[in-house]
Structure formats: structure tokens, C-alpha cells
């Protein structure tokens, strides 16, 4: 399966999502490859700082590397134009659009509703949700779904564990944070939803 992570805003958790979905796939049968399509090389940096349980390469190396991969996750840079977004969606099985649940994040998404309607397969992932403001995330979900925008059931909470993991160059379950296993459970649940999507459930 090829999953691409993209988004209209910077810093919404695209790289964090790409790394942890790749981690989820790495726990299944077959080989997993994370392709870093961001010139800032954030995923590459994550891997270089520590150790990730799957291969990471940049776009230039991805054509050859993908030959041996069963599961491919692509991390991309922020602010794609509508045409790029369509090309990204056409080039994968599922396009994941992480967004924060605040007004600015949602506005960036809703501004592109027309472009989203042209996409083949995509779903929005609410990320960096403040645990004290879960109601805001649910409100955001209702609003997006009322516009026929698909949203993952699972939301990703704002947890320090993710920041620690990025700094140490490891997946969140190896971050040593007290919330590490809870954090990992969230992305695992997203991974399960992605698989269901692939099976057309
Ligand atoms: N769920 C989360 N909880 C807390 N911090 C998070 C979470 N997700 C991401 N972060 C932190 O937010 C920052 C941005 O995350 P990330 O790099 O994944 O976003 P991005 O969308 O890929 O950014 P860019 O647009 O720069 O590529 C990082 O410091 C990361 O550790
Ligand atoms: Mg990034």
C-alpha cells in the first residue's frame, strides 16, 4: 500500500504521522519504506538522529528503493498547490491530511474543499489535539463531515512524547515518556483504519 501524508499548513504533524504510520506498517509482514519528499529532510533527520525500524530515503533514491518495498509511506512538504495535491493523491492509495482542530488549521483545509472533492482517496487526521479540548476536535469533525470531508475516527493528542521521540530519532514507543504507550496506541489505531480503508471496509 502507498500512503502519502500532505497538508496545507506547516507544523501540523505530517512528519510525525508519516514516521508512525511507517512504524505501524513495519510491524506487518513485508518491507516498509518511508520516502522523505520534503526538501527540509525532516524524516531523514529523524532517522539519522537515532534509529527507526524501517528504511528512509529521499525522493531521488525512492524509485529504486520502492522496488523492494511492500508498504510505502511518503512524507511531503507543506503548502502544496491544488494541482500538486491532485498529483499526490493520484500517486498513492490513500492521501492523509493531518490538521490541527483550531480555526486556522481548519480554515486552511476548508479553503480547498473544491480541490479536495476532486481527490481520489483521502482522509483528514485531527492532530495535536489538546486533551482538555477533545470537544473542539469533535466539533471540527462534525463540521468537516458536514462538508463530506472524510475524517479518521482516531484523533492524535498533543503529547510531549512525540516531541521527545523526534528529538531522540526513535518512534514514540521508544521515547521513554510516561505517555509513550498511549501515544503509540493512537497511531496504531490510525494504522488499523488505513488498513480497513485498503480492504474497502
Ligand atoms: N501529537 C503531537 N503532540 C505534540 N507535539 C507534536 C505532535 N505532532 C507533532 N508534534 C511536534 O510538532 C512539531 C511539528 O511536527 P511535524 O514536524 O510532524 O509537523 P510537519 O507538518 O511535518 O511540519 P513541516 O510542515 O515543517 O514539515 C514538531 O516539533 C513535533 O515534535
Ligand atoms: Mg514535515
Automatic annotation (TrEMBL):
Gene Ontology process terms (BP): SRP-dependent cotranslational protein targeting to membrane
An MF annotation (GO) of this entry: GTP binding
Domain SRP54-type proteins GTP-binding: 11-161
Alphabetical list of SMART domains matching this protein: SRP54
Superkingdom of source: Bacteria
Keywords of the record: GTP-binding, Nucleotide-binding
InterPro entries, per the entry: CobQ/CobB/MinD/ParA_Nub-bd_dom, DNA_Partitioning_ATPase, P-loop_NTPase, SRP54_GTPase_dom
Name the UniProt record assigns to this protein: ParA family protein
Amino acid at each position: 500500500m502507498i500512503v502519502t501524508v500532505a497538508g496545507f499548513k506547516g507544523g501540523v504533524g505530517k512528519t510525525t504521522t508519516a514516521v508512525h504510520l511507517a512504524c505501524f506498517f513495519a510491524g506487518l509482514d513485508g518491507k516498509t519504506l518511508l520516502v522523505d519528499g520534503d526538501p527540509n529532510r525532516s524524516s531523514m533527520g529523524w532517522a539519522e538522529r537515532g534509529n527507526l525500524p524501517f528504511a528512509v530515503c529521499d525522493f531521488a533514491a525512492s524509485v529504486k528503493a520502492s522496488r523492494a518495498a511492500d508498504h510505502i509511506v511518503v512524507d511531503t512538504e507543506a503548502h502544496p498547490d491544488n494541482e500538486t495535491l491532485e498529483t499526490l493523491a493520484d500517486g498513492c492509495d490513500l492521501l492523509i491530511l493531518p490538521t490541527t482542530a483550531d480555526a486556522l488549521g481548519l480554515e486552511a483545509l476548508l479553503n480547498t474543499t473544491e480541490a479536495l472533492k476532486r481527490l481520489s482517496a483521502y482522509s483528514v487526521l485531527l492532530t495535536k489535539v489538546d486533551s482538555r479540548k477533545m470537544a473542539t476536535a469533535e466539533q471540527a469533525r462534525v463540521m468537516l463531515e458536514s462538508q463530506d470531508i472524510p475524517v479518521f475516527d482516531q484523533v492524535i493528542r498533543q503529547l510531549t512524547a512525540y516531541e521527545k521521540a523526534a528529538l531522540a530519532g526513535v518512534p514514540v514507543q521508544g521515547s521513554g515518556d510516561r505517555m509513550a504507550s498511549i501515544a503509540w496506541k493512537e497511531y496504531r489505531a490510525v494504522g488499523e483504519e488505513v488498513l480497513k480503508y485498503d480492504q474497502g471496509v
